[in-house]
Amino acid sequence: MSQRVERVALQIRRELGELLPRAVKDPRVQAAGLVTVTQVHVSPDLAVARVMVSVMTQEPGDPGQATQVLRGLRQAAGFLRGELGRRLHTRRAPELRFQLDDMVDRVDRVESLLREIHAAEAKDNKDKDEADPALAGSSEAGSSPSPGDGDEQKTEA
Fold this sequence. Notes:
alpha+beta; 62% helix
C-alpha cells in the first residue's frame, strides 16, 4: 500500500472517530453505547473506503443492536462522505462501506479458551500432586539448592 493511501486511511479513521459521536443523529447509532472505528482500508484509487467499526452495545452479546447500528451508519454514509470531503480537502471523498469488526469478540473467545486450558492444567497438576505425594516432594526438594553449595564455590574461585 502506498504512503498516500495509508495517510488517507489514517485521516479518514481520525475524522470519522470525531464525526460519529457528534454529527450522526440517526437514533440507531445514538442508542448504541460506543461505536469505534477500528480500521479503514482504502482502495488504491482512493474511490472506496471500507470502514471497520466495533460496537459496544448497552446489552453485551446482542448482535441485533450491532446490526441496527450498522444499518444506521450505512444510511448516514452519504452525509459522512460529504463531511469527509470538506475536511480532507480532496477532489472526491471515497465511498464509505461500513462493516462490523468482530475482532473484540474473537479476542474474548481466545482469552476464554486460554483461561479454561489454564484451569484444566492447574487441576491436573493438583490431582497429580495429591495422587503421588512422594513425586511432588522429590521434585521440590531436587530443585532447591542446599545452603552450603553456593558458598563453597565462591570461596574457591
